[in-house]
Amino acid sequence: MESLHYLLMKSHLMLSRKILAEASKLGLTAGQPKVLDFLWTHEEADQKTIASYCEIEQTTVGSILLRMEKSGLIVRRQHEGNRRSLFVSLTDKGKEAAKQTAHIFQHAEEPVMSALTEEEQETLKKLLMKVCGAISDNAS
Fold first, then answer.
1. pLDDT greater than 90 at residue 50
2. Long-range interactions of 13-20: CB distance < 8 A, separation 24+
């Protein structure tokens, strides 16, 4: 049997390729689908929070957000009393792109989910969360 790191890496790359191929048809570039997904569920956040959640370097998120802003997908605003941080939220165009991205994610996951029972799906999610936690704890 293949090593754990190889299987995790391979499954991630295969899923990512599938998602990016479909997302590119919407004019989205790498990083944008997961930022859209994050903002769809969290409504508004600062750049540091987005970077942390999406596992993207903060400077890279800055570049991604700039392209998204130029495309009309997001807006960045300062909150009164907090002049240091810009808060990012989706525009109507961004919300529509986020909905389409959610469909892309769902479609990409369908072959995996149809190959597993509901119990196996839940077990897989729990195990992956445990793996992420262990990696995160060990990185500190």
1. yes
2. 15/108, 15/109, 15/112, 18/108, 19/104, 19/105, 19/108
